[in-house]
Every structure is written in C-alpha cells, then in structure tokens.
Amino acid sequence: MFQSVDEVTRRLAEQNYLCDNKAATAIYLACAMQKPILVEGPAGAGKTELGKVLAGSLRLELIRLQCYEGLDETKALYEWEYAKQLLYTQILKDKVSEVLAGARSLRQAVDQIAKEDEVFFSEKFLLPRPLLRAILAPKPTVLLIDEVDKSDTEFEAFLLEVLSDFQVSVPELGTLQARHIPFVVLTSNNSREMSDALKRRCLHLHLDFPDARRELEIVRLKVPGAGEKLAQEAVRFLQRLRKLDLKKKPSVSETLDWVRALTLLHIQGLDDQLVNETLVTLVKYEEDIRRAEDEIKQYLVERKAPHLSSPDNDKDFLH
Amino acid sequence: MESRIVEFANLLRCNGIRVSVSEGMDALRALTLLGIEDAALFRDALRTTLVKRSVDHQHFEKLFDLFFLGLAPSTRALEATWLEEMNLNPSEFQKLLDLIQDLLDHWDEEISPLTRALLSGDTGRVERIFYEADRAEGGNLNRKGMSGLIYSSLAARLGMDRVRQDLEAFKSAAAQAGIDAEILERISRYVDWRLQGVSQLLKDFIQRESQKNEPLKNRERPERLLEKSFVTYTEDDIHKMQEAVIRLARRFKNLLSLRRKRAKRGRFDVKETLRRNLQYGGVPFQIRLEQKRREKPQIVVLCDISDSVLNASRFMLHFVYSVQELYNKVRSFIFVSDIGEVTRVFEENDLRLAVDKALKGDIIDVFVHSNFGRAFELFYQKHLSVVTPKTTVIVMGDGRNNYHRPNDWILREIRGKAKQLIWLNPESRLTWGYGDSEMPRYIPHCSRVEECRNIRQLYAVMDRITP
To answer: ipTM value of the model?
Structure first.
C-alpha cells in the first residue's frame, strides 16, 4: 500500500504514468480508506491505463471487468457449471445407485440424495467471474471495472452490494466474504449519470486533458524517438486544437499516436506537407479533420509572425 | 475542525451540490489521514470525497475559496501595499512584529483581545473574534439585513472604541519604553495603519459572510431553463438549451432502451428453450420466453417556423434528431406558407448546423404570414405518400392562420392514413381559439393535442409518443 501522496506519484512514474497531484491524492485516499474510486473523464485521458499501472506499481493481480449494456450476474458475478455437473452425474451414475441401494421408499431416496447435495453445489462447480474472483482471491487484487456507465441499472444494483460490504451471497453456498478487500477502480465516460448510491460509496476523480507542460512530459516519456522541436510544436498545436469546437476532442492517446506517426515518417516539423495526411490519427470525424487542417495552416502563419499571435497562446506553454 | 467541515458541507448543499452525511464522514477520515497543513492536499481531499459530479467542480472551487480562504486574500493584499508604502521588506516587518510582541509582553495594561490580535498581526485570531461576535449577535449575517446596521451592531459588540483607546495607550507606552526614534516612528505608523484597517476588515468580513449565505445564482438556471417558455429565449439561452437538449436526449434514449428490454415478456417458448439447452442434454437449465417485438415508430414532423414558433420548432427538430436512433425513420418538413422537406439537410450536416440551416429561410420563404391551410394543401399534394399506417405525424405550430382558409379536411385525411396525428402548440391553451387561431377546427381531427411551451413539456410529449 502507499505510504504518502508523493509515493503514489513516484511509483506511478516508475510505471511510465504521469499524474498530477489531484489524481495522486485521490488514489492515496482510496487506498488508505479502502474505498472504491470512480474515475471520470473524456475518452483517452488515461483512466483504464490508471487501473493497469496501479496494479503494476502495487504488484497486485489485475482483475478486469468490461461493462456493457445487458451485463448480468452470470457474466459478472458467478455461474454454475451446469455442463460439468451433468457430466459428473453421468459418470457417477453407478455410485449414485449404490448410495440409493438401501432406500425403500421414494422419500428415503430423496432424503439420501439431499444429504449429498453439497457435493454438486460446492465451490468446485462454481465458475467465478471477475467480481467473485476479486472477492475470493487469496491475495489482494486491483479490480478494474471499465466503462461502468455503459452498464444498466440492474448491474449497478448488485455492484452496489458488492462494493459496500465486499461480500457476495450465493444462495446455495451462503455468504462469501472477501478475504482481502480489493482496490476497486471504476471508470466512466459520463455517457450517463451513475446512481447517487454508487457515487456515494466511491471517491471521485476527474481526469481531464493535461495542460501543455504535462502533455509535453508525457510525449517525451512515451515517444522517446520524437524530436524535441516536433514534440513541442505538436503539443502547442494540440492545446490550440482542443479549444476549438470539435465533435470529439483529441485526447492524450491520440496525441501520442500522432506523434508516433510523425516520427515514423521522419517528419521534423508541422510545416511538412505530409502532416495533413496524418491527421486521421488525431481526429476521427470528417468535419473535425477539415477544421484541424485549417487550424494547422493558421498555426503555421502565426508561428512565422510571432508578434501577431495572441498572448494567451504563449502563456499556455511555459518553458 | 469537524464543525467547519460540516458547515462547509452544508454550504455545498445550499448551492445544489448533494453531499450526504457519509460523504462528510469520508472527508473527515481523509483529513485525518492527510493532515491539514498542506493547503493543496486539503483542497484535493475535500474535492475527492465531497464532490461526485464533474459539473460541480467549478462551484466547489468557488465555494472553497469563499469559505476557507476567508479574509486571508484581502489582508495579504493590504499588508503588501503597506509594506511597499513603508519601504520595508518582510524580514524587517517580522522584526517589527517581534518588537511589538516584546513590548506587549512587558506591558501591564489590560487590553482587549482584539487589540492584542491586531497588534501581533494575527489575522486568524481577528477573524475568529469576528465570528464569535457574530454568533453572540445571533448570527445576524444569516439574515439579509442592511449591512450598515449589521456593521454598527458588530462594531459595538467588538468594542471598536475600546480598541482605539488601547492602541493610543500602546503608542504612548512604546514611547515611554525608550526605543530608538526611527523604530518608534515605524511602530506608531503601524498602529495607525492597523487602526484604519480594522474597520475595512470588518466590512470585508460581513460581505463574505453574507455572500456565503446567498446561494450562487447560476446554479438554479439549468433546471429553470427547462421550464422557460420558448418564446422568451435569448441567444444565450439557445446555446445553453442545446446542451440541455443533448443531455435530455441521452436520458431519453436510456429510458427507452430500458423500457424496451422490460417489454412484456411473452409465454414460454418451447422451441427456443430446447434449442438453447441441447448442450445440457435437453435438461432446461435456461428458460426462453417469447419476445414481443416492439417496433420502432416512424415519425413525420411538420414544423411551423414563423417567428412565434421558431424556437419551439428549433428544439423540436433538435430533440427528434438527437434521438433518431429510437425511430425507424424520421422525415421532417418546415412550413410557413410554403412547405419544404428538410430531411436531407439533417442527413448531410451536423445536427446543430442542420437546425440553423433548416430554419434560416433558404428552403422556404419565411418572410410571409403563416398560412396553415396552404401549407397543408401543398403537403397533401406533394408529400402525402410519406404517411403510412405506421407513421406518427407531429405538427408543431400555433394554429394562427391569419384568417386564410383552414383546410382542416386535410388533417382528417392525414389522420385516416397515419397511425396517429399529434399537434403540439407552443401557445398557452387558454389562447387557443381566440383571434385567428384555428385550433378549434384542427383539434377534432387530431389523436392528441398538447401544449408544448418549454423543453420539459416537449420531453414529456415525446416520452408519451415513443413506446
């Protein structure tokens, strides 16, 4: 577990994940208070990645549950392996007749079978899905529940039970308590509002697009082959692009893809002809691509005449 | 400390941020873990435990500054200007304060706690004294009284006159203590400055406290905007409403997909069950029921875009196209006197652009008087084929025909061909039928007629239409 907020930042940096103080504080608190953490933000901001690096930095197993509409208990919690049960019954047919040999009436036969029924409803035939696996794990784990806003309200309901008491009730087996409380990370794109009850149980963290300085650090870290000039220009351009009214604003992962693409093509600066071809890695909608092209042209114009550019463009980027 | 956090949580609640009791307790636990020395950590801890919606973050920041930073910014500003005036640097200032503290310790006179706090530059203590005085006055600041009255009553309780006397006494005591003349001069000016400053500090304090208790006005707007009548929208409102419509549309879609899932489950389906359970040797582990297929409706929208109905039509189109996944086919028409189809406009353009384009006047002439009769006639001649027994026809208009021919028989025809005909009127029901309103003629032919004056009503109507 983490001892301090600084340790969080340090260990995540070792995993090549740069986060700001807000995020580090939230993670530290979630860990220390053993509460789940709900990470919200635009797509590509690094929410899922956060879950993964947390598991890496704490050296714990990562159990991942991807949510979608229609996700139900059997796929998220547990399922009985019917086929296995049936198979065993078939194989043990002879043994069963042996056990029932002494029975003289139907009732006796049923009673005798009933005495043995734990055999068929035991943990052996229980197929644990991610949530139950996290609870029954012999060592602490990191449970990453991805895109919880894509699930429906029924899923939220039994997720609530799991998250508040960290126990699962299986009718045949009774209540299974968690041996170690897992570190739960929920991610959401905010396509729908989560219920208040769920939010109440979690700590909240909003991961937004990084500022210019941080984005440059991330680019330097994740795309080591990129030239310094290219990285700086790209980040500056992206900060401008995000201010426009786009259908989908480019996120950090798209920035990295773009810089990688430019590096692969040995492009040194944004004034290269080929840059426009690579814009598809950055923005994914037709009209956004057009706007991005216009913005590049404008950016290059302003760059050549720095006294024309407005002051806040430079303020974004502190050396 | 706990009471401060509880108060802060209460303040958040007054401003629309829902904070539950357990979240407050989480905040306290977090503070025990992190300590309260580091200001940034303190803020982050409170933010992560108390604020669970991203939209509330901005308000949280404002309220946090208002509540926790208190008088600090204003006093710091005052100090900075004074130091500049006196040409002192911070270390000299500290020496001055130390000297004053020394004098105070050796001085036998009884002075009020406020004077002592002022002299030692302990603004935290000053603020606390203000608070206690306020509480003793019965928390007057919670009521919106005249700030002048509040000021004088607080000043009286704090004993401002006494403070003045004490400060003068201190100055003379300092003079008698035999200090260097220049430093004495500084002390004297410091005391004067404090004296002048205290009334300003008190005024600032009152202002902050009353601000705290006034809920931030912007909060109420999103909810109230939904109830605001279409006709009264400003440019700014239209922008805000587009966001609201998108959110409503999302909620609408979720609601409907849930409804569809819970659609009436039919009877036991033997064939499906057997098929599903072949892997288990025919033993029915999984039961399959007959699913009633819910069909998505087809929608045809006729929107009046004359001035009076313009905004209503705008949001109608916006909403319908935001949720068009819920419908089988959406075809939309606009009319004033002429009628024109705008379906292509919505297919080819981004939603917001399309709405603007459709309403601009490139497609039909908008500078004429409303003529429902003519518009219906043109629809009948050119577009009646879009209406099928599966179609729901929605007309958005105020029914004000400018005394032209009503042609209400066309509505009867449409109703005959369509599944249902719905009329949405942005005017108040009380005005239907007065003046040139042809509503009484049109109403009998419609399956349903609804008033649709604001976004909330629009939402309710769409909810009823869409199964």
So the answer is: 0.78
